[in-house]
């Protein structure tokens, strides 16, 4: 037995020259770190769909591993280090709070490539990537402003970071555009995934008169809360978040924003296999299909569906930017002049957006 | 027919044996759970318990044990003082947060001072005082108005979480952070870091946990106060007759556990975590309750229990990524530990008797 092993090793060494065998035949190992459980039905679910797509695309050439429900802090650093130690070649860290841990771990493993979602830091072996969810929020606002009867739209917000604030602003601007009387009620739950808190927030918003609920949290609990309210005689509309959440259609879920990570994950894995991986910053939207709008149900009037589709087409074609002036900040100062479109980065860029637009009455928590 | 009969004295054998039996039962039930999930149960248990300690990458996992175990041990030690006296501080999570905020407040206020001799001791003091003060709220309310410290301390956790969010978004937000929430990284400030040797997992929280073990051991073994605490827990009336001041005892127990939790929070925020962020706390204050009971409220037991708990966290993540076990299975596994401990603990106070059917 021992002899055979030795011989096999010797043969392999002779034929392939030692380490070359590892390069040629071992599958590329791709790791995913998730902030919620893969069954959340929203954010993490869609990232996991991306993992499955990578596995499907490359088959035996790729090995995928993941750890779910990893808190954003020292635990994340440990999980990433562990993946790198166990031979991962490429690691996707899929939450904003993983940014510093990713940078720290990447510094210790220069040969492992990291991809951090929704942050702003990069390194030689760290890319970042995100989607222009605000494009989808604009469409949501456009629909929500027209289907609301109480003129009150509830918004379940997670953390007051630019991504979330940007979404609120985009939705509000486009709701206001079609319905000047619209009012936004915003509840901050300080979590990405907590079905109980999310359901409480949805119920509170409904009790305060909101008949459209938008959510920036990852579970389907707000959809279920709205469905329960509808069974009790209310008429509440919701939108699927991060994932289609089609099981709640046609009511309360009337449409959705779908994050489609699969093409990006496949492309980046391919780059590692080809040896062409480089650190990049990616921020894609409807144009590449990273942001999709889920089917609009019959609960939305036909003319609204048509105008929403026009907006989707215009954004996809690059003809319309959801942040096009004139737009003032909440304090009344000018942010974008007539006809100007927002920059991505810089002092006035939307990447670091930390203010509400004019008309929103709430305050960003400090 | 089986029946339970109360023992005149808690069984000493079972007091010591029940945690071990509970761990074994958890492993057996866990093996069944993993098998039901289609995994090789032996391999899963090996990944959880053996891999971090003796596996290929133990050089990385062993220091992680210190990092994960230190706050659990420090907080559980504090809790054990009160639990022995029948004073139930359930809000260590809140005291942990407030300790971290007070210590971080000092560090950030003095930034960019490089005088470590001043900054770090001041942080330690602030962290301990912060946790102490937060625990004094349920303490004073109980002493003065007879409120229930379980409810008050628990409710104050949620208040502390709101304060934490507010600090991370407002007062303590990194001015160079491009508008994103979260403070400056204190682990990278020479004057404020709680790291002693990061590659070996050594930080001041570990030191404090170890000193705490000795401190609590001496308190119960040698000190009159330790005796009074035990007496108050076992025989409150006898304690009152022997001159124990119940109000002082409540304040001491809550204050000591608050201060230890505060120190754990401070050393975490200035070391492993580094920043005050909205979701800085990950439940150490609650897990420590399990650790305290698993360790039989004894300092050495708590040290072992804290290490075991840390091991299940670290090994659980290993099993997740290498075997694809779902995260929830690991949480169920940890939950079973407490479940079996409580179940087996029945044997400490009760004897199982086989009674004849029909007998009066």
Automatic annotation (TrEMBL), chain A:
Gene3D superfamilies tied to this protein: 3.40.50.2300
Residue ranges annotated for the ABC transporter substrate-binding protein PnrA-like domain, each copy included: 28-302
Signal peptide extent: 1-22
Keywords: Signal
One Gene Ontology cellular component: plasma membrane
InterPro entries, alphabetized: ABC-Purine-Binding, Peripla_BP_I, PnrA-like
Pfam families (UniProt xref): Bmp (PF02608)
Organism (species): Pseudooctadecabacter jejudonensis
Residue ranges the record marks as coiled coil: none
Domain of life: Bacteria
Name recorded for this polypeptide: Purine-binding protein
Automatic annotation (TrEMBL), chain B:
GO MF term set: transmembrane transporter activity
Membrane topology category: Multi-pass membrane protein
Compartment annotation: Cell membrane
InterPro entries: ABC_transp_permease
Keywords: Cell membrane, Membrane, Transmembrane, Transmembrane helix
Any one cellular-component term (Gene Ontology): plasma membrane
Transmembrane segments: 20-39, 59-82, 94-111, 117-138, 150-172, 204-225, 246-267, 273-293, 300-316, 328-347
The keyword Membrane is annotated on this UniProt entry: yes
Pfam families given in the database record: BPD_transp_2
Name assigned to this protein: Branched-chain amino acid transport system / permease component
């Amino acid at each position: 037995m021992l002899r055979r092993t030795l011989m096999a090793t010797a043969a392999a060494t002779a034929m392939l020259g030692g380490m070359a065998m590892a390069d040629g035949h071992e599958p590329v190992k791709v790791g995913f770190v998730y902030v919620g459980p893969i069954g959340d039905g929203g954010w993490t679910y869609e990232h996991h769909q991306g993992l499955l797509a990578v596995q499907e695309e490359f088959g035996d050439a790729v090995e995928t591993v993941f750890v779910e429900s990893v808190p954003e802090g020292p635990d994340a650093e440990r999980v990433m280090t562990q993946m790198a130690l166990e031979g991962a070649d490429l690691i996707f860290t899929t939450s904003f709070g993983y940014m510093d841990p990713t940078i720290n771990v990447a510094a210790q493993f220069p040969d492992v490539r990291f991809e951090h979602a929704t942050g702003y830091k990069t390194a030689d072996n760290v890319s970042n990537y995100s989607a222009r969810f605000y494009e989808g929020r604009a469409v949501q606002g456009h629909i929500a402003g027209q289907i609301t009867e109480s003129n009150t739209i509830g918004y379940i917000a997670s953390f007051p970071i630019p991504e979330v604030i940007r979404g609120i602003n985009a939705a509000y601007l486009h709701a206001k555009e079609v319905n000047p009387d619209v009012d936004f009620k915003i509840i901050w739950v300080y979590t990405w995934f907590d079905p109980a808190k999310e359901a409480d927030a949805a119920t509170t918003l409904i009790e305060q008169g909101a008949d459209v609920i938008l959510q920036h949290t990852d579970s389907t609990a707000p959809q279920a809360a709205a469905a329960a309210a509808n069974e009790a005689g209310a008429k509440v509309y919701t939108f699927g978040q991060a994932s289609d959440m089609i099981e709640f259609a046609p009511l309360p879920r009337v449409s959705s924003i779908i994050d489609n990570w699969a093409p990006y994950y496949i492309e980046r894995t391919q780059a590692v296999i080809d040896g062409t991986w480089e650190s990049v910053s990616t921020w894609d939207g409807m144009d590449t299909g990273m942001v999709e709008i889920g089917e609009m149900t019959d609960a939305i009037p036909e003319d609204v569906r048509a105008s929403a589709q026009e907006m989707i087409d215009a954004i996809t074609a690059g003809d319309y930017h959801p942040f096009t002036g004139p737009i003032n900040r909440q304090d009344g100062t000018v942010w974008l002049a007539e006809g100007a479109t927002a920059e991505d980065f810089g002092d006035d860029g939307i990447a670091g957006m930390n203010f509400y637009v004019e008309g929103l009455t709430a305050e960003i928590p400090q | 027919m089986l029946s339970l009969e109360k023992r005149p004295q808690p069984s000493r054998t079972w007091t010591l044996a029940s945690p071990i039996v509970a761990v074994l039962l958890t492993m057996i039930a866990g093996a069944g759970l993993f098998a039901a999930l289609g995994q090789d149960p032996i391999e899963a248990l090996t990944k959880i318990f053996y891999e971090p300690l003796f596996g290929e990458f133990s050089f990385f996992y062993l220091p992680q044990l210190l990092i994960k175990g230190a706050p659990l041990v420090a907080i559980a030690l504090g809790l054990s003082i009160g639990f022995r006296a029948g004073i139930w501080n359930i809000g260590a999570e809140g005291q942990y947060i407030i300790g971290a905020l007070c210590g971080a407040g000092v560090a950030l206020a003095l930034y960019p001072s490089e005088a470590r001799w001043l900054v770090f001791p001041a942080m330690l003091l602030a962290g301990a005082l912060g946790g102490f003060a937060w625990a004094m709220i349920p303490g004073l309310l109980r002493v003065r108005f007879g409120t229930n410290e379980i409810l008050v301390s628990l409710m104050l956790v949620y208040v502390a979480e709101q304060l934490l969010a507010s600090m991370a978004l407002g007062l303590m937000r990194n001015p160079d952070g491009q508008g994103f929430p979260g403070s400056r990284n204190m682990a990278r400030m020479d004057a404020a870091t709680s790291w002693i040797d990061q590659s070996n997992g050594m930080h001041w929280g570990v030191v404090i946990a170890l000193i705490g073990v000795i401190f609590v051991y001496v308190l119960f073994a040698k000190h009159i106060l330790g005796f009074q605490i035990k007496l108050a827990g076992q025989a409150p009336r006898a304690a009152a007759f022997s001159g124990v001041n119940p109000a002082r005892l409540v304040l001491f127990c809550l204050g000591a556990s608050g201060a230890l939790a505060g120190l754990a929070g401070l050393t975490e925020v200035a070391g492993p975590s580094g920043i005050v962020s909205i979701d800085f706390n990950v439940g150490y204050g609650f897990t420590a309750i399990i650790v305290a009971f698993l360790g039989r409220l004894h300092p050495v037991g708590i040290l072992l229990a804290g290490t075991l708990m840390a091991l299940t966290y670290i090994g659980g993540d290993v099993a997740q990524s290498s075997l694809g076990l779902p995260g929830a299975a690991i949480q169920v596994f940890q939950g079973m530990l407490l479940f079996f401990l409580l179940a087996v603990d029945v044997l400490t106070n009760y004897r199982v008797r086989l009674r004849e059917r029909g007998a009066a």
